[in-house]
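Entry 14. Ran structure prediction on the chain below.
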Amino acid sequence: MLGYIFILLGVLAFLVSSIGLVRMPDVYTRMHIGTKATTIGTTLVVIGAIILEPTWAWKLILLAIFILLTNPLSSSVIARATHRDGLVLDSDELKEAQK
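Output, structure tokens:
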């Protein structure tokens, strides 16, 4: 039962992420909610799967580590590319820091 609870919590994190992607005002905040919630959601689903099927634990732990390392990195690369493309906000702290 505990494994199913973790999986349900992960699915709820994905739901919050999808709602946030629609409601957030700009690309940077959408990227933030998309990265944070999916990282947490995937980690919770993986924990639930480990509880339900302990024989897959090592593979699932490697999967979780890979996601925890690559998801924030990809978000950072997308944010940098978006900024270099010229999409700026009203308060652009990154541009001010480069001066």
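The CA atoms of residues 13 and 91 lie 29 Å apart. Will compare against last week's run tomorrow.
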